[in-house]
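Record pair follows.
FIRST:
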Amino acid sequence: MNKRGSAESMAGEGREPENVWDELVWRGLIQVSTDREELRALLAGPPVVYYCGFDPTAPSLHLGHLVQLLTMRRLQLAGHRPVGLVGGSTGLIGDPRPTAERTLHSRATVAEWVDKLKSQLERYLSFEGDNSARIVDNLAWTAPLSALDYLREIGTHYRVGTMVKKDAVSSRLASAEGISYTEFSYQILQGLDFLELHRQLGCVLQTGGADQWGNLMSGTALIRRVEGKSVHAFGTPLITNSDGTKFGKSEGNAIWLDADMCSPYSFYRFWLDTDDSDVIARLKIFTFLSRPEIEEYEAAVATDAPDRAAQRRLAFEVTTQVHGSAATETAIRRIHDSSR
């Protein structure tokens, strides 16, 4: 059975073109990567295993994660084999924030959030066919690892001088609070994830946000040192509005994918309020509309069309992906009724 759910969860999606790398570039999804020509050739060839990790630091994913979920889906549509990793172990630690230590949540809380995130991941991937998706939890290989094994087998491959140069670490070292060894170790654990997936599943590509680039490169470097092989990674850009403000936040609160944390109406309204200067970029990143369709909306926006058709299509597509068509239609009716 396809765990992904009904087809409506990927409203408007179509088969990605033969070279999915070119499509990702056109959609503005590549900010940083390992060798671009090698990646382009890799993704144009036979199916490869790739993964993206999601830490359970809250009971739901948010719009920042949606960029990664849809990127994974695009690669799967091109024939590649996705692995969604939920960080049952890394979620107990958390990657370093720029200013202060993260609050450590209980093991029971993190385990509960792991299950919720797994359910959300399953909505965006297909679990049928030759390139069916897998969902894994990194607690499976970190829980049995002793402190001595961790230090001898993994820690020995890392150099402190390199680790402290990572942006997230260096900014914390320069702060009054500093950084704990716990958060300092996060990049090693993420590197271990890539190594284990490479060994177990033949994974050769990791995707993530560009702000995680240091952590992504931790895995490529570890595999090169331990296995003597080259693997790849690419980072998607941090999505910001045209005025430079961080995307996906509303008065300091994330736009969650869970309907109980952000109603379908509020979700739809968020996209409907997209500025003209941002809407075409959002259509490229957050929908599966074709290039000709998006170019038509781009032309309409350029002529200052008053009906905001691009925003309405954006809101419809993304809300349907996340909440389904029934919830989307209800949100549309509510907005229509309130405008009378």
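SECOND:
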Amino acid sequence: MASKFASYGQNYTSLLHLFLLLSSVLTSSSDLSFNFYAGSCPVAEFLVRNTVRTAFSSDPTIPGKLLRLLFHDCFVQGCDASVLIQGNNTERSDPGNTSLGGFSVIERAKNAVEIFCPATVSCADIVVLAARDAVEASGGPVVEIPTGRRDGRVSVAADVRPNIIDTDFSLDKMIESFSSKGLSIQDLVVLSGAHTIGDSHCNAFDGRFKRDSKGNFELIDASLDNSYAETLMNKCSSSTSLTVSNDPETSSRFDNQYYKNLEERKGLFQTDSALMEDNRTRKIVEDLASDEESFFERWRESFVKLSMVGVKVGEDGEIRRSCSSVN
């Protein structure tokens, strides 16, 4: 009985902490709120969740794609769905975004919502909700998300490269990038846990290897486990356009295995390995590797903070009729 009360107390404290965090965030973005669509479109979140789960049932790579789509949206122009806009010189056309996926899922969710609630639910909210639901569908934590974001009207390819994280960034460059979005070092380590699901093309990490005179790969990154490196080199030897799982152990499940992989020097990207090689982040990695519930609790907090980066409200944006173009 005592252990049950102790567990209840810990959960209560975590929920209280999350509530206080969200309260402070929402104070500065008063037009966002929980159940924002309760009166105008009460089926909105159900429709998005159902669309994500249906897509996931036929394509297990969808959760990773939706989660990556959110990161690439929020880090450029804020969480305003500007990455969805099609056209020449838009964010979506930039080489840094050409490997993104999940667009069709967002469009299907938007189409479903438009049938019941035309011109009411923003694409920006749908992108955030879809990423949230993708994590939950993969076995991750349930996250309550404030909604009410407006869609951006500007999408410029030149804004992409200065804002997204490249897979060969140093820890200092990652910290600088996250800090510019109002995210902490802890947020950086926790949100990197998104790599517990999803796939990546070989050319995203081939800088960790070099070709010898016979055209075979050789490992040049000492931070990578030799046997894991051998597996990657064999997989990618024929073509750098092939894909591998971000997490070699539990690739389709959102869990804390990513951090266990880092402890075993099996981080796919240089940016992953960097987290284990620096005193500023190593202890956080070790804590998350040893306690999945702690990872889930911190994920809830960091994910909400990510979803609030550069949000547009009121007259700052619009509600797009189609997510791929401005009104």
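COMMENT: The radius of gyration is 20 Å.
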